[in-house]
Every structure is written in structure tokens, then in C-alpha cells.
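Methods: example folding runs. The two proteins below were folded one after another, and each record is reproduced exactly as written to the output file, sequence line first and C-alpha cell line second.
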Amino acid sequence: MVKRKNNDKNIQSLKTQPLFLRKLQSDPDIFPAIRKSSISFYYKKGKLFEWKDGKFSTHQKYGVKFGSKDYIGEGSVASFRFSDNFLVDYNIIKSNCKAYQKSEGIGIGDFIKNNKYTTKKDIVVLDIEITLTESKSNIDRIDILLFDTIKKVLKFVEAKDFTNKELWASKGRKAKVFEQIDRYKTKIEKKKDDIVEAYISAINSYKKLFNLKLPNPESIDKQVVLFIFGFDRNQLQGRLEELIINNDAIKNQDYYYYACGDPSKANINSLFRGKPI
């Protein structure tokens, strides 16, 4: 079940940290996300830092610092060490994080950068990488949660780069992404009251952390919009139209999509509405 509750002590302690004050709270590339008893700071789709139990942590593959030589000879030993000062090594850690991101994660990051909850828009990105199940053996993560601050409605979005194989099935067959969306819709309907309550808690934390004026959500839209990006005009008029938009296997089955080649230019209002397939 989704849980998004942080105590005041955890948030107030974070607000005294130099890494947060000098980097994380002002970096437009960073998306802070409230979690159960922790706060994650995403860059693109990678968790750059996590604040938990009064300290920051990062993945070791992001925190490694290599020596001055880019290349090593066969049989030689590479020179590296791990960061012992995240503030000083911030740009190195951030660069390492980006290097591990695939095109899909980079595209999602480009979209949320312009639309996160700290912007003064009617519809904002409220969360990313949302897990709706407690089972460790079968984890579904929905990419994006939107929030209409006027109507006070939440809406989930599954985002896919055009190269993602889960988007595609032969004509007349249902692609894997729509099976994902079916699962999401079932879980959302089952846990809708808990989800709303969780994001009321999250927004209370965001208010304390960033002095925001956000209303509390009151409901969840039952639809999950498929956001497709990373294609050119020819691909839109070819494979995308044939295998998704005009595919009889998914036509009139209550699926919605929004397509935009460059995710940084996506219209968040159009994404929220989506188009029926």
C-alpha cells in the first residue's frame, strides 16, 4: 500500500542540511519525492539521494570517483574511491547518475522538470515511481502521478519511450503495456481511498519543506493515460498509428494515450485528459 508520511522532525532536520540548502532544493533537475519515513531526490529517473534517519545516502555506482585517467591498460589497476562529501562531489554524482539512465528515464526527467509540484501550474507532477503493491516478487511501478490542483483530482500516467518493446505487439494483438495498465487500474480502484489519504500526507510534507500552497486531493481519476514519446513524424504516422491508435485489439476498450515526440515539450493538460484509443 502507498504510504507517504514523514514526521516534522525528519523534515526540519533536512532543512538544515547544506546539501539540501545549497543544491537539492534549488536544482531544477531534481524531483524530491516523499516516501514512507524518507525523502528521495530523483535526477531523471534515478534516485540521486535519499534522506533517511538523519543522513543522506546514494547508490555506490553514483558515488564512485575515478582517477585522472579515462583508460587503463590490460592488467593494470583502476584508481577510484567513493565520495565522502556529497556536497563537494555533487556534480560528479549527478553526472554518474545520468550515465546510468536509459532514454526512457531521461525523457521522463525532461518532462517532470517543467511540471513538478513546485511550479505554479493548475496541473502538476506530484510523484514518480509509485509502487502500489507490497509484494517483493511482483513489483509494479507507475511512472508518474499528476494532480489537478483546481479539481483536486489525482491521475496516474504510464510513460514509455518509443523504443520500449512493451509498447508493441503485432496488428490485432494486445501489447504488454496495456496488460500493465489493466493491473494498475484494478489496484487503483481497490486502494483509491488509501492513495488519496497517502497524498494528503505527502502534500502536507511538501508544504512544510517548500512553503507551498497546494490543496489536498479529493479523488482519483479511474483512467491511466499511456504517455508515448521519443519518436519522429514518420514514426507517428507509421508504426504508432497502425499498432496502437488504430489497433482493433485495443480499440474502444477504455484505454487513453497522449503522444509527444519531445517529452520536454509535452502539454501536461493534454496529457491529463488523454485521448481515447
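Second run, written to the same file directly after the first:
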Amino acid sequence: MTRPASYRVDWFPAGGSTDAHAASSTNRHLVRLHDGCCLSLPLTPLPGGDRAVALLMSNQTSFRVERAIIERLTQLARAASPEAVVGVPTLGLTYARSVAESIGLPDFVALGYSRKFWYDEVLSEVTVSSTSPDQNKKIYLDPALLERVQGRRVVVVDDVLNTGGTMTSVIRLLQKAQAKVAGIVAVLTEGWEWHAALARIDPAIPALVRVLGHIPIFGRTDGGWVPLPKTEADRRPVT
């Protein structure tokens, strides 16, 4: 098995110069965020080898990059006037806790895939994520935390929206808990399948999504990786 290259994400502030290698490398993608800052992400081939994603691993970035992302996610979340912040496992939890604290909330709600013995199956939803498509699993809300979201304005925090499979399950779970989803905040959207998935729950839900930036799905060519058009990315979803 070939050992993967060392994982690295670079952050470039708005108005600053970007590293020439990060901007031009065929193995990295430079994504410009909503405020002019940039993230340089490694391109990672998906199983099959004909497509790749610009990979953001929230729990493997430097603290500098993490702080910069959390600062901007907090701004997006605060605009929705949340009474609670819910973190999506696993990688969304890295941001959700700090976003809730930065807003001034006393706590946050971490959803999970591990069922504790006191959990109630009523507060669960089956989900499949793009990074583990062959695993049917359940996402749970700890019943002991139900009062933190029930009847309250909630902002959901995640790292990347891709197929929308996990987020769809999260929204349905929060609806079971009688939470009022006021916003969905993420670092990036990837492709467009997430939009259709959320709209199937309610056509109004995609409008609740606020992100720092967007990344395409990449296809392999003789000259290297190139972004796929929106229609082709949708026709060949990441699963």
C-alpha cells in the first residue's frame, strides 16, 4: 500500500500573497472563501481513481487554520440568532464546540454514531455518508440533551456538505426533537447533490445553508485533475 503524502492545509488571508506552489500545483486546489481569504487543500483521489476531492480534515489542520475557520463560522452562526448549536459527527464537532462558546452559549449539542445504553431509538436516524458509503449507521441525539434543542432555534455546524446524506439525517432527527432549525453552517459545499437532498425534506431548507466557500468535484484527464461541470458532478454523485 502506497503511503499517502503528509496532510497539509494552508491558509492565506484576504489581500495577501499566496504561495505559488499552492496556487499552481496539480495536486492541490486553492479555494477562495467568501471574505477573500483562501484555503489550499490537497486533492485526494476517490475509490476508482477517476475522481478526486479537495480534502478538508477539520481535526488534522493546524491550530492557525482551525482558529481562522472558527472565527468565520461563528460570524455565520451568530447571524441566525441561535439558542443552541448542534455539531455533526465526526468532523463537524471540531468546529461546533468552539462556535457555540464564541457566540456566548453555555454549551452545545454533540450528535454521535455510538449508541450509549440509555439512548432512545426514537431519537435516531439512519444515515450514510460520502466518506463511508458502504456503512449504514445511525446518528443519535442523547436524550439527556433533548431540552437543549426542543423548541429552540438551532444552528447545525458541519465541515463539508457533499451528498447531503448525513445532513438530511440530522435535520430529520432535529425535527423529531421538535427543534427549530434556523441555520446550517459549514466550511465548504462540495458539488451540488446536497442541495437536492435537503430540498427533498423541505424546499426551504437549502436556503438556510451558509458556508465559507465552495469546491467542485474533480475528474481525471491526461493533463491532471480538472473541476467537473455542475451537471456532470450531479450525474455521477460521490458515493
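Comment on the second run: The longest strand covers residues 180-190.
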